[in-house]
Design a protein that fits this description.
By secondary structure, this protein is mostly helical. It contains five helices and two strands. The two termini are 29 Å apart. This is DinB-like domain-containing protein.
Amino acid sequence: MSTASLPEVWLRGPLPEVPPLLQPVAHALLQAREEVREIMADFPADKLAERPLGLASVGFHLRHLAGVLDRTFTYARGEALSEAQLAYLAAESQPPTHAGAVPELVQKFASQVDRALAQLKGTPESSLPEWRGVGRAQLPSTVVGLLVHAAEHTTRHVGQLLATARVVRQ
């Protein structure tokens, strides 16, 4: 059965091993992964860097989706970003446009969702209110704050990706 004929992920029931309070985060990330795969099916790689009306490019959104999940989940673990993560962040606005770039970017995001789901499964609900510092300034957040932000930020960028991809395809 294709995902297009299924109800949205949140209406398919609880996900095994994901703590009850983190189900909405997992549902949102799985929904985003499905929508990205659908949106990007047959998208031309040479249009990944186009910025209609000055909007962020489709390629930026794809790279940012994977990067922001990686970064927010790193902070949720109480870790600082690595040099590789900082380099990836710096390069997000410069998407590749070579043949094969689209499936590579879609797969990178899908793999990041898988890593996020694995982390959610191992996150005790008792840790959700724990303080976490964000960025070099160590701005205050919590484990649950970071995980929920990751889900809503992902959802927001999927919507922007959808709109920009439709404009670019025209």
